[in-house]
Amino acid sequence: MPARFNAYPPDRAVVVRVLDDTQRYSVGRAEACELQLDHGSVSRVHAEIFSADGGWRLTDLGSKNGLRVDGRLVSEASLNSPSWFAIGDVYCWLEPLSAQTARDAAAFADVRLTTSRALSQQLHQVNGVEPLLRHALDAVLELSQLERGFMLYGANVADLRVRAVQGLRNEDLARRAFAGSAGSLERCLADRRSVICCDTSDSPWLGARPSVVLGGIRALVCVPVEFGAELLGAIYADSRNPGPLLTEFDLELIEGVTQQAGAALAAARLRGAVDDLRDAASQVGLAAPLWSDLRPR
């Protein structure tokens, strides 16, 4: 019987995999592990999960911080029903699935992928920088299923401005009453990496930040918008309700859309520069000649 494996590393996207009962899965920090958990409490190759006797088996592989099932440290355990357990300090959930439920999960993932591709294609059909900014923000909100957000955009980091807003008022963005997570946005811009949190109450660094506490923020994602080596801005989205669970797959889709947004914005900016150059040339009597007028007859 297949199973769904969920892992909840702090300040990371949820790791979700549908496990095939014909395979064995190593769990650990190493990239070679089939179930990779990027957390300091997890050994490089920490444990193994495999199907046995009609259920599933969890076995420690000599890890430093061990396995805990029902709060007890164990070297191995049978997981024949939906079960919580901890690999190091990362809480995990394993739930046996019927074959039909596993197929439904795969079909839902295909729908999400198709939606993401459609949103990315639409970005390249939008004319103008301002409509592009709004469309990119709407795409991230749709994929993340979060309540509200805004997009920063500018010629450089020092010139970043709020250029698109959804679900927030101007007073929510005022410096003294900012209702979002300034810390997550600053980290995203400094590291140029996505920041994600499914429940700030479990976050070691976000949960106690004044902007998070006062704003009642429970879930958030912040993604840099880049084109090549150039940082164009960032998209921030959050929710005052816990969840939804933002998985690695969700984050991959969101980052894919923001990558396409960066390319579309760079193209729009280039088109604007060409239009400005053409207008300037026209004003001084240097209108660009048509190729049909120049080419040899």
Salient structural properties:
33% helix; six-stranded antiparallel sheet
Descriptive account of the structure:
The chain is α+β, with helices and mostly antiparallel strands and 297 residues long. Helix content is 33%, strand content 29%. The chain has helices spanning 99-123, 129-144, 182-191, 210-215, 248-283, 291-294, and strands spanning 3-8, 15-19, 24-28, 35-36, 47-52, 55-60, 67-69, 72-74, 76-79, 83-87, 90-96, 148-153, 161-166, 195-197, 219-227, 230-239. A six-stranded antiparallel β-sheet has the order 2-1-11-10-7-8, with no helix packed on it. Strands 4-3-5-6-9 form a five-stranded mixed β-sheet, with no helix packed on it. Helix 1 runs antiparallel to helix 2, helix 1 packs parallel to helix 5 (248-283) and helix 2 runs antiparallel to helix 5 (248-283).
Summarize the structure.
The chain is α+β, with helices and mostly antiparallel strands and 297 residues long. Helix content is 33%, strand content 29%. α1 (99-123) packs antiparallel against α2 (129-144).
List the helices and strands and how they pair.
Elements: E1 3-8, E2 15-19, E3 24-28, E4 35-36, E5 47-52, E6 55-60, E7 67-69, E8 72-74, E9 76-79, E10 83-87, E11 90-96, H1 99-123, H2 129-144, E12 148-153, E13 161-166, H3 182-191, E14 195-197, H4 210-215, E15 219-227, E16 230-239, H5 248-283, H6 291-294
Parallel strand pairs: 3-4
Antiparallel strand pairs: 1-2, 1-11, 3-5, 5-6, 6-9, 7-8, 7-10, 10-11, 12-13, 12-16, 14-15, 15-16
